[in-house]
Amino acid sequence: MTNPWLEQGLAASASAYDLSSAALQGAGDAESVSVSVTSLRRMKKCAAKMNRCITRLGAESAEREDRLWIELHLLHQAIVQESVDVEANTARVTELFRKLRFDSDRPDREQAQTSLTANPLTALSTSSKAMDTALNAASRIRASINELDPEGDTHTHGASLIAAKRDVDRTT
Predict the structure, then answer these.
(1) Which residue range is the domain that position 142 belongs to?
(2) pTM of the model
(3) Is residue 105 one of the residues assigned to a domain?
(4) Is position 103 within any domain?
């Protein structure tokens, strides 16, 4: 996609070049060249048009750069907000597991087991081990992504892990 200001500026530059080439063509080795007033006026108009086009291109470039900086800052804010959400979700899941483990250690195990089986994030022996393994794998993946990212911290979202666990529990 070409810019109309760029095309106009290049056309004016080509016109000024043609006018100066025509004046210099017959000069040979002479020290001075006679140029008509009309040719000088055309060259002046071409030079003014080139200057206007360069000014407009510079202004468009500055506006584009400003817009990109604003978009960059908005994206940065969204990423920071997302990382806060991920940390909050991680804290919620950790607290849920802590409560489930605490409930399973209580003396009235019958009540604890009924509340745990009703919960999609069951913390009974086999499922507890599987969930711990999945969470450890997710943390290793998160650490690997953080090592690969040259721009800064990247956090993966844990909601997909919880959804996958819920789907597995539904099928069994």
Answers:
(1) 76-171
(2) 0.42
(3) yes
(4) yes
The per-residue pLDDT for 65 is: 92
- The total of other beta-carbon atoms located within 10 Å of residue 11's CB is 14
CB neighbour class for 20 (10 Å; exposed up to 12, middle 13-18, buried from 19) = middle
Which residues lie closer than 8 Å to 91 by C-beta, 6 or more apart? none
Structure tokens, 165: 């666990």
Report the pLDDT value the prediction gives residue 11, as an integer from 0 to 100: 87
DSSP structural state of residue 152: S
DSSP 3-state assignment of 127?
A: helix
- Amino acid of residue 99: K
Distances (CA, A) of 28 to 22, 61, 89, 126: 12, 42, 81, 97
Domain count, the chain: 1
The predicted-structure confidence for 24-83, as pLDDT tens digits, reads as follows: 887 777 788 888 888 888 888 988 998 888 888 888 888 999 999 998 888 888 887 777
- In a domain, residue 104? The reply is yes
pLDDT at 8 over 80: yes
Specify if 135 maps to a domain.
yes
